[in-house]
Amino acid sequence: MALNQADLVTRKQTIEIGIIGGPFDRITTVLEEFEPGQKDYIVHPGSFGVEPRVVRDVVEREVEVTVPARLHTSVLDMNRFNTTRPGGGGIGFAVGIYFRARVRSTKRPEIVVKGQRTLIVKHFARVFKEILEFPGGFEIELYDHGRRHVGMGSSTGSMTAACIGINEVLGRPFTNRELRRVLGFNACEESPVNKNYLIRGFETGLGAMAGINGGMVVGSDDMELIYRIALPDTRVLIIIPDVPSLEDEFTGKDTAAQSEVELLMRRARYLDSLQCGTKSQIVLLDLLPAMVRGDLKGIGNALFDLAFLGSKRAECEQHGLFGAPIYRYIGSLREIGAEVVGMSSVGPTVYALTRNDDVYHRMKKFLAAEHVPENRIIETYIDNTGARVVESGEERTYQHEGWLQS
User: What pLDDT does residue 261 have?
Assistant: First the structure.
C-alpha cells in the first residue's frame, strides 16, 4: 500500500549518526523520535542515583519562575557524555536574558501547556507525574528568550524553568542536585524531522547550574557542580555573527539538532580525546585559582586558551573557514581589552565580558564599524542571583546549594 505525504510526516523517524571519538572508537548512535511523555522514554530516579519518592497529595499552587540564560564556554570532554549519559563537565555564565514560566498544580489530572517549547514542557510535566506518581495535573505557560539554536541554551533553559516550577508547586520533592539529574537524564529537544516529536538531547547540566545559582559555575562529569562565584559589576556584550551556519535560521527551520549532534559526536569527540587532559589542567591550575581570587582577567586568560582546544575548536570550525569568522571576533574583542571572550556552546554566539566602561564603548564602536545589525547585538550583564520564584505576590530567590561560595 502506498504511503501519502501525511503518513511520512507523522510516522516516527530515526536518525543514524556515526560516532568517532578516539582513534579506535567508531560506532553508530541512533536518535529515535518519541512523543512527549512516552513512558519508555521516561528515566526514573532510581536509575541515576536519586532515591525514588512519591507525591500523592494534590495541593493547588501557582508559581511564576524566572531563570537567566547561560553562556556555555567549553565542555571538558565530550567523550564523557551521550544522549543516555549526561555529563562531560564544563564552564558557564548566567546572563541577564530570561526564561519565564507560570506553573500551576491542579486537582484535575490533565496537563495543559501554552506558550513556547510546548513539546519539551509537556514531556517534563508527564515525567514528574510518572516518577512521583502524582495524581493531579498541571497548567504551564512558558516563554523562552527567542534566540534558538545559536548557543544560548534555549532548550536547557526551557527545561530548567519548567522543572523548577513543577518542583516548587509539588513542595520541592527534589533538591537542586536531584532536580538537575532528573532534567539531565530526561533531556530532550524538538526533532529536526517531525515537529510533533522529540529526540533525546545532550546535557552537561551547566544550564541548570548557571540558571539556578547565577554567576559563573564550573561543573564536572556526571553533572556535579564543583564551584560557583559571583561576578559583580560585569557587563556582557553578546554578538550573533552572520555566518554560513546560520542558514537554517532564514529557511524557517526551528531546530539544528541533527547537525549539532553530528558535530559533537565526530570531530569534537576526536579532538577532546587528544586534548581533554590539557583542558582539565588549565581548569584546575589556572581557571579555578583565578575564580577563587575573583580575577576576571585571569579567568579570561584561561578561557582564551580553552577556545582553541579540543571540542571548542571543532565547534568554532563548523561556522566556516575553519573557524576564522568566530576567531576574528574573539581575537578582536580581546585585543580591544575585554577581560573574557569566547563562543558559547556550539555557537555562533560570541560574547565579551568586561568591568571597564571604556573597553565596553570601544567594543560597541568596533561592532558598528563592522556593520553588525543591532538585532544581532545583546547588551546585558552577569546575573549573580539565579532563578527567582514568585508565589502569592512574594518573590524569593530559588534555593542555592549552601556550601558554594556566594
Answer: 61
* Structural domains of the chain, with CATH: 13-395 (3.30.230.120)
Up-side HSE of residue 32: CA atoms within 13 Å toward CB?
6
> What pTM was computed for the model?
0.89
Q: Which residues contact 314 (CB under 8 A, 6 or more apart)?
A: 263, 267, 268, 270, 271
Q: What is the pLDDT of residue 256?
A: 47
Task: Give every CB contact of residue 330 below 8 A, 6+ residues apart in sequence.
Answer: 304, 307, 341, 342, 343, 350
Assess contact for 303 and 344: CB atoms under 8 A: no
Which residues of the chain fall below pLDDT 70? Answer: 1-10, 15-29, 244-264, 399-406
Helices (H), 154-256: 154-169, 176-185, 206-213
pLDDT at position 266 is 78
Taking each helix axis from N to C end, the angle separating 154-169 and 176-185, rounded to the nearest 10 degrees, works out to: 130
For residue 50, give the amino acid letter: V
Assign 152 to helix, strand or coil. Answer: coil
* Maximal C-alpha separation, the chain: 70
Q: Which residues of 171-210 are buried (b: 16+ CB within 10 A; e: fewer)?
A: eebbebbbbbbbbbbbbbbbbbbbeebbbbbbbbbbbbbb
Identify the three-state secondary structure at position 57: coil
Helix or strand (DSSP H, E) at 270? helix 269-282
**Strand 111-115 to 137-143 pairing:** parallel
